[in-house]
Amino acid sequence: MKNFDDLEARLTLLLSNFDTLYAENIDLKSRLSLKELELKSLKERIERLDAEKTVARDKVSSILQKIEGLTQSA
């Protein structure tokens, strides 16, 4: 009977560990999903900022060209 008791104890421990790991896996998947959404949002923000930076650079370049044109014609 001792062998069956040992087997039952080990099986109980194994099932307990499985339940713990299963719950942890669900939590980690949830946290991963949130991080993926956060990453997507940050990538979109970077794209918007890059576009704004390009517009600003083009405007500054245009202004500098106009100033240069004024100084050359004067």
Q: Can you walk me through this structure?
A:
This protein is mostly helical and 74 residues long. The protein is 97% helix and 0% strand. It has 1 helix and no strands. It has one helix at residues 2-73. The longest helix is centred in the middle third of the chain and has 72 residues, at 2-73. The radius of gyration is 32 Å and the shape is rod-shaped. 0% of the residues are buried. The model has no long low-confidence stretch (mean pLDDT 96).
Structural class estimated from helices and strands: mainly alpha
> Topology as H/E string?
H
Largest β-sheet summary: none
Percent in helix? over 70%
For the termini, the CA-CA separation is 107 Å
Overall mean pLDDT: 96
Which key features would you list for this structure?
single chain, 74 residues, mainly alpha, 0% strand
Concise synopsis of the structure shown:
The protein has one helix at residues 2-73.
Topology:
Layout: H1 2-73
